[in-house]
Amino acid sequence: MTLLQIRNLSVVYHNGSRTVTAVNGVTLDVEEQDSVGIVGESGSGKSTLAMALLRLLPGRTAKVEGEVLFGGQPLLELGERELSCLRWKELAVVFQKSMNSLSPVHRIGTQMADVYRLHEHETRLSKKQVRERIIKLLESVRLPARVYDLYPHELSGGMMQRVSIALGLMHRPRLLILDEATTALDVVTQGQILREMMELEQELRLARIMITHDMSVVAAACKKVAVMYAGHLVEFGPVQDVLRHPLHPYTQGLLRSLPSFKGAKDHIRGIPGSLPDLSSPLQGCVFADRCEHAMPICRQAQPVDTAYSGSRRVACHLIGGEAHAAQ
Ligand SMILES: Nc1ncnc2c1ncn2[C@@H]1O[C@H](COP(=O)(O)OP(=O)(O)OP(=O)(O)O)[C@@H](O)[C@H]1O
Question: Known Pfam families for this protein (predicted)?
């Protein structure tokens, strides 16, 4: 069943006279218990997309358009009260900097208990019961019970990020969004946490969106991948299919720039050029200026997001009928 339906979502930032279209017409489904990696280079709009889903963007400067249904509820139309019931309990997020948001002068357990109480109004657990629950939660992310009584500075980066994940899982949400949550960690710790996450989400029947610029993280830990470029979702599909047979020239370039996916180091190639100016109106394909296969139509019309096969989708004039129709 589909848990999250994102339809034609756009986010425009207004800063004085300048407007930046950070997310541009994104359509994406996340099934229950699915794991979707959103990848793209810095500035492609990944975090803005996550913040828009969580309604965490400042209404004054960020205009969000489109439709988002979460478990059938229209997320973008909910009032603050309905939203606060959903956040943490149904929909939780772990940011890269989540660990910095803990207070340095209070013990981990006390802070977790505060978060628990803030969002749990129905069940009145005793102090002891809350402590037990939190210790169980810490153990579920492979942290020893003694962490409950420690201060943030007494934990390593990996342990702190495990605490942040435990906080995200506190109310057993149906969807967990990890925004570069493991990026700052060393590769070994990152790998361990990802493996544990995957075990845990099977147990909790949790769906996960993982935002990262690291394709190897998506390859290791996600079932599906959504590739973003300059605010556009350019390709979507099962991870193994996209890795083996990338359709969009941007995805192809992204994979070529990774040593682990395409042979020897001397074959590594970056993608020449840089992201387009997101404050200028766009006529053709957003990737046309950097695309080695660009055709005249690519500079004239935006490609339509087209179903390719199975659940694969791609927005490129090379794929589908448009290029052929124009010839
Ligand atoms: N508050 C803001 N006001 C104006 N522009 C913004 C704001 N926040 C982000 N942007 C712009 O929106 C675009 C998308 O940024 P975003 O942070 O969502 O990308 P990202 O893919 O998550 O990048 P990163 O991986 O570096 O976090 C960028 O061009 C960025 O400069």
Answer: ABC_tran, oligo_HPY
